[in-house]
Amino acid sequence: MVPLQDAADALVVGFATILEDGLQLDVAIRPESIQLPQAEDAAVTAAVRVWGRLTKVAEQIFFQGRIYGTVTVPCSRCLETVHADFRVETRVIFLPSTSSDISKSSEGRSSSSDELDLYIHDGTVLDLRPLVRDQVVLAYPVQPLCRDDCAGLCQVCGGNRNLTPCTCQVGGDDPRFAILQQLRPPGAS
Question: What is the residue range of 113's domain?
Answer without folding.
Answer: 4-138
